[in-house]
């Protein structure tokens, strides 16, 4: 959940998000006026997938950035819901999945 809080803070304090997939996860940098405001690595796959779908070639800027910022609460709920679904599917017995 701390990653979601950092993303929200970064969205509010910057104008561009740069991301790159590396060995530890998704490296994210929030940029404002040419300066990096915050930089961190997202290790959660669900969150990384959701963020990469918002950008193009490792960049979220302009209208895409503004849309992510203004709809962040929905984005956050979407990510949390996907996490819960994955956890529930992992905990279900294999027999219950074969219907």
Please count the beta strands (DSSP E, at least 2 residues each): 4
Measured as a percent range, the helix fraction is 40-55%
Query: Mind summarizing the main beta sheet?
Result: 4 strands, antiparallel
The largest beta-sheet arranges its strands as: 3-2-1-4
Q: What is the helix/strand order? A: HEEEHEHHH
Shape: elongated
Q: Structurally, how many domains make up the residues?
A: 1
* Low-pLDDT ranges: none
Distance between the termini: 34 Å
Tally of helical runs: 5
Radius of gyration from the alpha-carbon trace, in angstroms: 15 Å
Q: Report the structural category.
A: alpha+beta
If you average the pLDDT, what whole number results?
A: 92
What features would you describe in this structure?
With 99 residues, the protein is of the alpha+beta class. Strand 2 (26-32) and strand 3 form a beta hairpin. Strands 3-2-1-4 form a four-stranded antiparallel β-sheet. Helices cover 54% and strands 24% of the residues. The model has no long low-confidence stretch (mean pLDDT 92).
Structure summarized in a few sentences:
The chain is an alpha+beta fold. The chain contains five helices and four strands.
Kindly list the characteristics that best describe this protein.
elongated; 5 helices; 54% helix; alpha+beta; 99 residues
Secondary-structure topology with pairs:
Elements lengths: L1 H12 L2 E6 L4 E7 L2 E8 L2 H8 L6 E3 H9 L1 H20 L2 H4 L2
Antiparallel strand pairs: 1-2, 1-4, 2-3
């Amino acid at each position: 959940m701390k990653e979601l809080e950092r993303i929200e803070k970064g969205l509010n304090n910057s104008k561009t998000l740069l991301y790159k997939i590396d060995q530890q996860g998704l490296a994210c940098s929030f940029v404002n006026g040419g300066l990096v405001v915050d930089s961190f690595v997202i290790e959660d796959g669900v969150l990384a997938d959701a963020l990469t779908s918002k950008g193009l070639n490792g960049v979220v800027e302009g209208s895409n950035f503004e849309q992510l910022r203004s709809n962040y609460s929905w984005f956050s709920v979407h990510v949390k819901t996907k996490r819960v679904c994955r956890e529930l599917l992992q905990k279900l017995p294999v027999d219950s999945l074969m219907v």
